[in-house]
Amino acid sequence: MSLTSEELLAQERQLQFARFGNDVAIDLGLHLLAAAREQGLSIAISVRRNGHRLFHASLPGTSPDNDRWLERKARVVELFGHSSFYVGTTFREKGSTFEAESGLDLELYAAHGGVFPVIVRGTGPVGTVGVSGLPQAEDHAFVVSALETFLNGPEV
Question: For the domain with range 5-150, which CATH number is right: 3.90.1150.10, 2.40.50.140, 3.50.30.10, 3.30.450.150?
């Protein structure tokens, strides 16, 4: 998947919540978990609101390293307010890399695909939803696909 920063921003404009509390976060996490199991994926899943982890699951084949990647990608989303894939893409589109130009501690931050902002319409980013375990473009695509089906469901 080779999406431009504009295409990634369009995803963020489209995939927004009317509300986002603990119950919605848990339902979202369970939705991602069911989709991952259905597809036979080995991923770790995290849903957070304002830095508070409300859902976490690690499927067989994952390791603590996946949790570290989730944390690093989530910090990027919390800092920049955009998907971790968008942040990395914007640096690449400028002919550089996040690692070379951000000035951030790379032990704490990773602009690799897989974590998406939880955006509430009229409020803005309030949390993150993400996965780790696949190549970064596939991590991102999985989260976007799961958000699309979840947000088209009842009462979100």
Answer: 3.30.450.150
Q: CA 25 to CA 112: how far, in whole Å?
A: 22
- 40: alpha, beta or left, given left = phi > 0 and alpha = psi -120 to 50? left
Instruction: Tell me which H or E stretch contains 141.
Output: helix 136-151
Q: What's the pTM value of the predicted model, to 2 decimals?
A: 0.95
Rg of the chain over Cα atoms, rounded to whole angstroms, equals 14
Q: Is pLDDT above 60 for 1? A: no
Question: pLDDT at position 155, please?
Answer: 60
Calpha distance 136→117 (Å, rounded):
16
